[in-house]
Amino acid sequence: MKHVLMTLPYTLDALEPMMSKETLEFHYGKHHQTYINKLNELILDTKYQDLSLVEIIADSEGGVFNNAAQVYNHDFFWKGLTPNQKELSSKLQSIIEENFSSLEEFKKDFTAKAVGHFGSGWAWLVQDENKKLQIVTTANAQTPLAGNLKPLLVCDVWEHAYYIDVRNARPSYLENFWKLVNWDFVEENLA
């Protein structure tokens, strides 16, 4: 199976002004595409060539794992954004409040972990096997799938995700991120 760059659910300029077309051209069009190209190159004529991303992540290490996980993480990131943000459903709002006391407290905690993550990586909202929501960060290409956690939402905190738009101001990037979160996607992942 040859892996291909996912089709974005919006145009490259749809997330402006929070995330520029230029950022998407580089982040999606170049960085994300490079992970796919490298993954396809690494899995050719191996036991991984006919497996899904999730299957590859579960059974690989080194370069194969890194590239498969980066493709998965980026796919998840793009799906978690929308130019047409809606309010949270009362059901999702209630689940977040049960786990974090309020939506504001959840955003504050998530932002603090994302901003405070040292180096490259990801900030995730996940659900554990007991259905409890948690905020975790992962370094480099790591993904919660490796820790038996169910991803619900992710924010890419690699510098390439925001440098064009806000330079090295990760807190400003997180402010913009909250204006783009696709709450419907989060709720679909909970189902």
TrEMBL record:
Signal peptide: none annotated. InterPro entries: Mn/Fe_SOD, Mn/Fe_SOD_BS, Mn/Fe_SOD_C, Mn/Fe_SOD_N, Mn/Fe_SOD_N_sf, SOD_C_sf. Its EC number is 1.15.1.1. GO terms for molecular function: metal ion binding; superoxide dismutase activity. Mn(2+) binds at residues 27, 74, 156, 160. It comes from the Bacteria. Gene3D superfamilies: Fe,Mn superoxide dismutase (SOD) domain, Iron/manganese superoxide dismutase, C-terminal domain. Coiled coil: none annotated. Residues 90-189 form the Manganese/iron superoxide dismutase C-terminal domain. Keywords: Iron, Metal-binding, Oxidoreductase. It catalyses: 2 superoxide + 2 H(+) = H2O2 + O2. PROSITE patterns: SOD_MN. Residues 2-81 form the Manganese/iron superoxide dismutase N-terminal domain. Homodimer. Belongs to the iron/manganese superoxide dismutase family. Destroys radicals which are normally produced within the cells and which are toxic to biological systems. This is Superoxide dismutase. It comes from Poseidonibacter ostreae.
